[in-house]
């Protein structure tokens, strides 16, 4: 069951060539603990350029490029849609209409552009905290940020209520707060990573995911009437970008 759900998670959350089916999708959407497990894979793959003996700027660029080659742009598209909805004047129904609009407006461009700039600057910090051919703080923070971002998505899936019928409701409507235990269990290996490299920076980076999820859940409940698929995707992007900076700052001050 776990392996089936994991395959479904890889198929849904990444662009990796994993065969999927209705069975793997159903297993995944009922198993939010798989989100952090996929985060380990994405974080490790994205961090490969940080291992290599490259200039800092090249390592940072390689991290960002590899990240989106692995994950695709689905979650980034959710962030852009949410940016458009955030600047709309009107009630929840009006904002939901904007979320469903395929065109991207100024709010979406600004939200996505600022987040990508923040991510790229954070990647410079990761590259500066990394050394060639070793599991260093920068690599560990990159993995922790991704696991935390996916744990944030899982948190929303467990505590949110559907804003409307759609992909988001297929996830949110199938899970409750009792599934958070599985999310926490899947995140436990980060404690070992913290002991080996990064210390408190790893835990701080991870914590950004659930914290951003709580903030996004509150915003979504007040402005959208619940949790949508775009809100879940935006949580991933915002949590990752903030986690990298928080992790590097904590590591620098430690």
Average pLDDT reading: 90
The profile of the biggest β sheet is: none
Coarse shape: globular
Count the strands? 0
User: How many domains, in number, for the residues?
Assistant: 1
Portion of residues within helices: over 70%
Multimeric state: single chain
What is the overall number of helices? 14
Order of helices and strands: HHHHHHHHHHHHHH
Measured between the Cα atoms of the first and last residue, the distance is 41 Å
Strand content: under 5%
**Uncertain regions spanning at least 5 consecutive residues:** none
| Rounded radius of gyration (Å) | 17 Å
Helix-strand makeup class: mainly alpha
GO cellular component, one term: plasma membrane
Keywords: Cell membrane, Cobalamin biosynthesis, Magnesium, Membrane, Transferase, Transmembrane, Transmembrane helix
Protein name: Adenosylcobinamide-GDP ribazoletransferase
Transmembrane segments: 33-52, 104-127, 190-214
In short:
The protein is mainly α and 254 residues long. It is built from 14 helices and no strands. The model has no long low-confidence stretch (mean pLDDT 90).
